What does this fold into?
Amino acid sequence: MKKLQAPRGTLDVLPQDARRRLKVIATADEVLSRAGYEPMETPVFEDTEVFARGVGESTDIVQKEMFTFEDKAGRSLTLRPEATAGICRAYIEHGMHKLAQPVKVWYAGPFFRHEAPQAGRFRQFTQIDAEAIGSDDPSLDAELILLLDEILELAGTGPRRLRLSSLGSRDTRAEYLEELKRFLRAREDELSEEVRARIDQNPLRAFDADHPGTQAVMKEAPLLLDRLAADDAEHFAAVRALLDMAGLEHELDPTLVRGLDYYTRTVFEFESDRLGAQAALGGGGRYDGLIEELGGPPTPGVGFAAGIERILLAAGDVTPERQPTVFIAMAKPDSGRLAFQLAGLLRREGFRTEMEQAGRSMKGQLKQADRVGAYATVILGDTIEVKDMSSGEQQEASSPADVPSLLRSVHEREASAT
Ligand code: HAM
It folds into this structure.
């Protein structure tokens, strides 16, 4: 029969990697909980409109990358490409504006984008996402950036760059885009073919061009950061001052564009040189108009998301720490029931315990004990023996109930020896 494979752009996460993922999520939980962020979950699929209105009709995500399908009643549903729109939908649906503000939540789970798969880019990927909804205080922007930095640091991603900018309000941005289009049209002859063709759809792309002529033109281009309204500029200065105070270096990058339409004011992205073309470990920003866009009361919000696959890629291969383990071996074939019972007893006492379950010879069982990294093996025969796997010493237990204390002393000896 033909072997079946996982769909293109998806990943099977095998046990060793799955363990590393859980650790990253546990780290995020620890860091975010300390700052008052509570876990929250929303469905993996939503009405398509949540993303069409939330992420924005004109974005690549909505135009090209959504996994959209119809349910049996003909409603259009979409596998979530990101978390923020769904969380804001839930905030409105559950009247969370009546709670003390800001509402701080975080989330880890799978997301789906129909992109061309490449290193660090998948069609199903996992994000850690955090949001603070209901206040426009600049300390929240700075707090989220610092929390993400801490998670990335603890997850071992190594050096990273923080790119930071402010997009101001939607009106400021719309006026600025018109100004930029006028500027580009006036110097059309010096631009690359590609940039020229996209002046109307995406003038900001000109900032990323490799073409030398375009690059020369863009050195003189107007910058959105210079066009911010006074209150937006003040907000941005406050965010930057807090980051400076916390000692987090950032690059001011007026050309930072994010792939989602809902952003206002602060935007940021952490990048790593260890990642190649898909360099973003995580990013986010403020979305003060999103809740209103989704039918709620005017409510500011700010948040970030980071991709677990990219975090692990940047962290590189790390050998997982061995957990202290006990192995139960059987010298006699009729010890199976006792082995099973003793494994249960030891596990309830908190020992990580494995037992022989594949009919190996005694030699094979001791080899298996080594493979699972056992510091001690309990050998069931005419007697119950506890074998210290590093010294080879054996001690007899007077009964199964005596085993835990013997194991504790082997473990303590081991721990003091290392
Ligand atoms: P985003 O920049 O689209 O933001 O995604 C955040 C992170 O998710 C990226 O930096 C990357 O690490 C990871 N990621 C995105 N797409 C892929 C993919 N195809 N394969 C692997 N990893 C990927 C957002 O999603 C916003 N919702 C962030 C946010 C939260 N803004 C405010 N609140």
The first strand starts at residue 38 and ends at 39.
